[in-house]
Specification:
- The chain has 19 helices and 2 strands.
- The chain is mainly α.
- Strands 1-2 form a two-stranded antiparallel sheet.
- The longest helix has 29 residues.
- It is globular.
């Protein structure tokens, strides 16, 4: 089967699964017991919201896709790849956010959540003298866009230079960027991306002795810090477990685990019991309905590249990233934590679920180009959701 036909098949599968997920959600709204929320799209209403700022997202997407199609990122130096990847991700996030005007750049930061991390970050920002909501939102948006270069660094180490370069459009134009603007959850995703990058650096065969140990401890510290923001995060540590064993660096698991305990222990000394917070976060919403709805949200948020990634998971040395994220998703569903809001809680996992999208079609096969058709379709879906279906409740 030709590459074009395989890509079209991946797109067809994604569209079919997305349609099934939306149909299930409609059934849940119509026939299930109360879902425990009065927010759109469940009990809210929608209205078209097309304004001049809606044109910015299609322009950004067209520029990124055009640059990728010309192979520019295959030729430039790696620092330029990271810089332009950051700028592309930042512009894409801002373009999706400003469809709703200024509030799209500061609204999400108004809800710090249950764990202590988000509240502390907002307090530190305010103490630094930054109190204007728009300024805070812009700062968080700029910080959240660091997700793109950090993911690329980890993918380059785990999968190779060319795969990382061709993965750039996938992560820079991801549909889940809708939830990155002014988002404290995006900071969690950045911390986890830095954790994965640190673990990949530490376990590289070129790193031994104190350097490898320091990198592993740093990865653990970042994981523990991220756990102060989200109860779903610790499951992502499984990606480093897989990576360390795949690279025959199993001893690094001890150092990373030790580092992860430090922030959790400090928080407990200060009065926050992480396990108690986890149990309290389960909520009262019906877990069965929400478990399936959450997976439908994941499918839409990750975009069509998710199908290609799952299909080619065995063909990439970066499989630990995908397996770790998949295990994290499955664990949160089975633990009954997926009761709404997964588009935020799972923002940490989305970039890693699509890492195999640029893997060869067969093991040790020739590199494949960026799946631009899949990227474009996912971007179009994000633009439609954001610009044409603006919630009013």
């Amino acid at each position: 089967m030709s590459e074009a036909r395989v890509t079209r098949w991946d797109l067809f599968v994604w569209l079919a699964l997305a349609a099934a997920g939306l149909a299930f959600t409609w059934l849940a709204v119509r026939f299930a017991s109360p879902l425990g929320t009065d927010a759109a799209p469940f009990l809210g209403t929608y209205r078209p919201n097309v304004r001049p700022s809606s044109l910015l997202a299609p322009v950004v997407a067209a520029v990124v896709l055009s640059v990728a199609a010309r192979g520019w990122w295959d030729r430039v130096s790696w620092p330029i790849v990271l810089l332009t990847g950051y700028l592309a991700g930042l512009m894409w996030t801002v373009a999706l956010a400003v469809v709703n005007g200024e509030r799209g750049l500061y609204g999400p930061a108004d809800h710090p959540g249950e764990p202590p991390g988000p509240a502390l970050v907002l307090r530190w920002i305010h103490r630094a003298g930054l109190t204007d909501p728009l300024a805070v939102g812009l700062l968080l948006t700029a910080a959240g866009a660091l997700l793109v270069p950090l993911v690329l660094v980890a993918v380059r180490n785990g999968c190779g230079d060319l795969e990382a370069r061709r993965y750039l459009p996938v992560v820079a134009l991801a549909p889940y960027a809708i939830w990155v603007a002014a988002s404290l959850d995006a900071l969690v995703a950045v911390l986890v991306a830095a954790m994965v990058a640190a673990g990949a650096w530490a376990s590289d065969h070129r790193r031994t002795g104190p350097k490898a140990g320091a990198g592993a401890i740093l990865a653990g510290l970042l994981l523990g810090a991220a756990a102060m923001f989200s109860f779903a995060v610790p499951w992502m540590g499984f990606s480093l477990v897989c990576l360390y064993f795949a690279r025959r660096r199993a001893a690094l698991n001890f150092l990373t685990g030790l580092g992860a305990l430090v922030p959790v222990g400090v928080a407990q000394l200060l009065g926050f019991r992480w396990v108690d917070g986890l149990l309290a976060a389960r909520g009262e919403r019906p877990v069965t309905w929400w478990g399936v709805i959450s997976l439908a949200v994941l499918l839409l948020a990750a975009g069509p590249a998710l199908v290609a990634s799952l299909r080619k998971m065995r063909n990439t040395p970066g499989w630990p990233f995908l397996v770790g994220a998949g295990a994290a998703v499955l664990s949160t569903v089975l633990a009954g934590l997926a009761r709404g809001g997964v588009e935020h809680a799972w923002l940490t996992f989305f970039p890693w679920l699509t890492v195999a999208a640029t893997a060869p079609e067969r093991q040790a096969g020739p590199p494949v180009p960026s799946p631009l058709l899949l990227v474009a379709t996912g971007a179009l879906a994000a633009i439609a959701i954001r610009a044409l279906l603006a919630p009013t409740a």
